Amino acid sequence: MGKDTYYLTTPIYYVNDVPHIGHAYTTVAADVLARWRRLNGDRVHFLTGTDEHGQKVARAAEERGMTPQQHCDDILPRWKEMLGLLHISNDDFIRTTEDRHEARVQEFMQRLYDQGDLYKSTYVGPYCVRCEGYYAEAELLEGELCPIHRQPVERLEQENWFFRLSKYAPALLDLYDAHPGFVQPDVRRNEVRAFVEAGLEDISATRTEFSWGVPCPWDDGHIFYVWFDALLNYITAAGYGADEEAFSRRWPADVHLIGKDILRFHAVYWPAMLIAAGVEVPHQVYAHGFLLVGGEKMGKSNATGIRPSELVEHFGIDCYRYYFLREISFGQDGTFSWESMEERYTTDLANDLGNLVNRVLNMVGSYRDGVVPAPTGAAGDAEAQLSRDRETALAGLAAFDRLAFKKGLEDLWQLVGGVNRYVEARQPWALNKQGADDDLDRVLYECVDALRVIAVLTSPVMPDMAQSLWAKLGLDEALEDQRLPEAGEPGGLVPGVRTERGQVLFPKLEE
Ligand code: MSP
Predict the structure, then answer these.
(1) Annotated domain spans of the chain
(2) Is there a smaller number of Cβ atoms within 10 Å at the N or the C end of the chain?
(3) What distance in angstroms lies between residue 88's CA and the mean position of ligand 1's atoms?
(4) Closest ligand 1 atom to the C-alpha of 16?
């Protein structure tokens, strides 16, 4: 069996703490992409999970007076709740403390060891526990701060097993050059390429000063460095070494979505590990920017940590999922503020979309008793414009495949705006007054048919809203059975369906 599945992943999250909106950002984006590919007819496998080993988690457990395992089991529900809250449609969830993972990590690393890719030596140098990362002295800020966290690093001196990363530098450079899409966006690719070109040092693959990790099978007292363990989740969860059939259908992954702070691990260490083991590398690693609050990266260590539930309670799940992707260019840093979120809710969602739906369904209700008429009147310039707006939306959404969510949503809103402009241009209330029945039938039909397409196209981003809209349209088929491109074609609506006005889609926000 060959690859027949679109396989995408989020990073696996450290369970040192509970989720904030920075973590939710990657997860929602991945979910939108997963739903978008399903809508296009792909078989999709969407993986997320938790990164439970390492010093950072061990310390968090210690602070709470728990064993690491107790601590992980205790925090895990908070991460799973986040998936439920945000309506994440992951197909699998991996914990790095599961047997299915640990056993495969040992096999993989044993293989590297057997072929001579690991050797024993002493590491002396900086380590950032927050990153769980090694740095070169020259990378530190002011000689002692982690470049990501701007906090003092720790100094390690440990005898451990090193991975011959440097040996794979030429293969990595070939990879970046032969597959420019491997690291995206381009600015990240250039950054990674420059880093490798400057010369790679071998890296520590095991640790000895604590024991919370996967044991090294050939040397007692060593556990694997948490990033080696963590990165392998992408293959262990896909069936590597356990279910070769499933693995061959999924691997290589189509895209690993990550934040830019963990680029080096994914774009340098990870492909080197895979190349060493003779496993294909993923098709793409896409690094998005940071969510900033008041100009600062949101994180546990600053006071800006906002929980997704606070925003969902106020704005609802649909606005939550829409806002971040519409507001921020995915590859770049972007600022969250309550004001801009409120603005998006009111303008894009309540006014542009919610009012439109209300208006159209009210007209079908009052003029045609809720039943969608056949489009009898002739189509003219206004209809031609509407169909151009549809095409813009359909073509524009392909931007999702490049993870350009903002661009895709802008184009989709061309259609929402287009239907609003169409209603203004055709003035159905005037047609009704004049008794221009055929023309009115045409206009009502076009509007409801466009709402059908809008429900389909918004469904990856706002699955709940899309479902409510779909229900209002009274269509026979299920929304989840719709597939593009067919479902986006004009005229797919069968006249005679009975629409329901129901409740407004985006009610006024509470103060
Ligand atoms: N456990 C590692 C990943 C291992 S993947 C094999 C890890 N975990 S993390 O919980 O610290 O971070 C997970 C993801 O959340 C990262 O992609 C990180 O970039 C993202 N974010 C955390 N804070 C963020 C923001 N403020 N903004 C955007 N994303 C951020 O790293």
Answers:
(1) 6-288, 337-488
(2) C
(3) 17
(4) 10
Token couple for 219? 């040397």
Specify the pLDDT at position 299.
Answer: 67
Q: Which residue has the tokens 């005679």?
A: 496
Cα–Cα distances in angstroms (integers) from residue 395 to residues 31, 32, 491, in the given order: 20, 17, 18
The pLDDT score that the predictor gives to residue 510 is 83
Q: Right CATH number for 337-488 from 1.10.730.10, 1.10.1240.10, 3.90.950.10, 3.40.50.360?
A: 1.10.730.10
Average the pLDDT over 240-264 and give the result.
97
Q: Give the separation between CA 158 and CA 400, rounded to whole angstroms.
A: 45
Ligand 1, atom 9, residue with closest C-alpha: 13
Class for the domain spanning 6-288: alpha beta
Q: Is 261 in the pocket of ligand 1 (CB under 6 A)?
A: yes
Choose, from 53, 256, 297, 406, the residue flagged as catalytic.
297
Q: How far apart are the first and last CA of the chain?
A: 56
| Whole-number Å distance between alpha carbons of 35 and 40 | 9
Question: Cα separation of 361 and 469, whole Å?
Answer: 10
Residue 304: pLDDT over 70? no
Burial label for 470, CB within 10 Å (0-12, 13-18, 19+), is buried
What pTM value is reported for the model?
0.96
* Residue pLDDT, tens place only, 124-140: 999 999 989 999 899 99
Tell me the mean pLDDT in the region 229-233. Answer: 98
Listed in sequence order, the residues at least 6 apart from 443 whose beta carbon sits closer than 8 Å to its beta carbon are 377, 422, 423, 426, 428, 431
Q: Which amino acid is at 437?
A: D
Active-site choice (56, 71, 101, 131): 131
Distance CA 162, CA 120 (A): 6
CA dihedral 110, 111, 113, 114 (to 10 degrees): 110
Whether the CB-CB separation of 172 and 271 falls below 8 Å is answered with: yes
